[in-house]
Amino acid sequence: MSDATAQTPVDRARASHLGPVARFLKDTELDTRMLGMVGALLIIWALFHVLSGGLFLTPRNLWNLSVQSSSVAVMATGMVLVIVTRNIDLSVGSILGFTGMIMGVTQAELLPQYLGFGSPSIWILAAIAGLIVGVAIGALHGYVIAYLGVPAFIVTLGGLLVWRGAAWWVTSGRTVAPMDATFRLMGGGPDGAIGSTWSWIIGIIACAAIIWLLMNARTQRKRFRFPLRPLWAEAFLGTVTCGVILACVWVANSYPWPVGIVRRYYQALGQEVPEGAYIAHGIAIPVLIALAVGIVMTFVTTRTRFGRYVFAIGGNPEAAALAGINTRWVTMKIFMLMGGLASVGALISTARLNAATNAQGTLDELLVIAAAVIGGTSLSGGVGTIAGAMLGAVLMQSLATGMILLGVDTPLQNIVVGLALVIAVWLDTVYRRRIG
Amino acid sequence: MDQPSTPLVEMRNISISFGGIHAVDDASIDLHAGEVVALLGHNGAGKSTLIKILSGAYKRDAGEIFVRGEEAIINNPRDAKKYGIETIYQTLALADNVDAAANLFLGREIRTKWGTLDDVAMESETRKVMGRLNPRFQRFKEPVIKLSGGQRQSVAIARAIHFNAQILIMDEPTAALGPQETAQVGELVKQLKADGIGIFLISHDIHDVFDLSDRVCVMKNGQVVGTARTQDVTKDEVLGMIILGKCPPGATPGPGAMRAFA
To answer: Residue B222's domain spans which residues?
Structure first.
């Protein structure tokens, strides 16, 4: 019988002959792959900043970047689970289009007839309707894939055509606008952001949560006498994470409302515009939605049985089945989740556009898959993280935004994004072969 | 041949076919507590298939399974585990991308009072059970694909014995192991047997299992050639059963025994 506590000195002994960088990485237990991605993102940002003559790293551009990334980032979190189980979902863009159309028609044409125009419950009913339709579509896809055994590629390729056609069919191709006033807040814009005070409050709560999580993990490991991270590493992680969170809040709070909107705001209050009036945007609501989805999905993948099963199935489907996991039901649930997340994406992009169109979300499936894959999700299954996929979405959006700032022609933009995807996956393959 | 107690497991007249091929044809086999039964036969003789019916991986076409004299309903691996039937598969059946603790508790996770995974508790249990099986094992945080063959084997064994197995199925337990690790598995079998666990050892190589087993059961072309107490037969006679389907005098012939010699 060996005692678990006897292992600590062995680990230490092994660590002693590592170099300073390796020891740093080992002590902080940081994911080198994720660090590499953050590094790549920072390099791309710096490059665009220099090339555009200082236009990229401005609060305004970063704020817009965050809003524009939200929809794809939300869907990418679901795509991670789909790809981890060796499936693919080509239909998310079309599901987004269809559920967006459902939400648009519900709030602009159906509900006002019964509840009256501008009724406060309209936006929530419309959102729920879209969500239900999204989950139902996912359930249908998942059922055909898991229980009828049709490959996911084919089912969702069919879905891509079916739901795009359905989105067209709902209104015979007509664009539905405008959206409900409350609903529109979820798309961002000066009204769709929470202002500086609330942004700081959320930032501070997030910091407190991070510190609590670190301390809780340490107590747990102490309770079972597992090897602990050195204290300086814990402090370093806590400080850096909180610093990043507060820096993001600061950036969001450094982007003021345009003068015209400030004037209108004070006019509505019946006041004079004060001298040097400055109203900050703060964090945009769609970004908050995306962050909330990211946190929930990270929790689901790492802390629940469902998440554990998703990864086990991805690693070895046969072993998962022999261990008594109902692999079909898990697969179906993954697609239901993906459908639901596509409708959350629809919520954000419909609100942002202030309209539901039948072309909405066209080609989004490719952006979502690219974000997940750039974010480290392996197409051979079993590997992927939610945070990585969301970072991948930001990276894709950074490329697009940066090239627009530089005035790059659209065809060239697509060429660059396509190349970036292939190069990113190639680099990842090299990395995995060396380290993995 | 008569044993006084009720068998721990009895599989009666089991048949299964895949697309017209009778993989297992009217096979019957039993196992008592604290007994090791070796199931022998060529590749494709039907031994793995027969045992996968017991472990719930395949659904039989015909036949009955009794556990402690009562008919057992086994439709999937979860059902089998409810009866205390644990299996170590030839392929080990590990999820390669997750760590030892996740594999050990796969499908039977320890959860906190909020229903979330209790990873520290699972890691703690894993450290205990692995400390017993393989004291030098240290790599608790790494995906099992990075472990050596022997380490992976100990994870698979740990998973099978950790949940109070009554009936243990080991499919080619030593096929991927070196001599030292093979000896360890032998020791483990003796220890588990002393604890009163019934063990099925499946192998195509008689030398691996002959000395460990109390009885041998030989299969050929999906049928049972015969069953014998190990002390009543020689290795050569068992080889004759495996290769020719020839049942020696010390064995009880089954439906697959060659008629002329039966």
So the answer is: 9-84+165-261
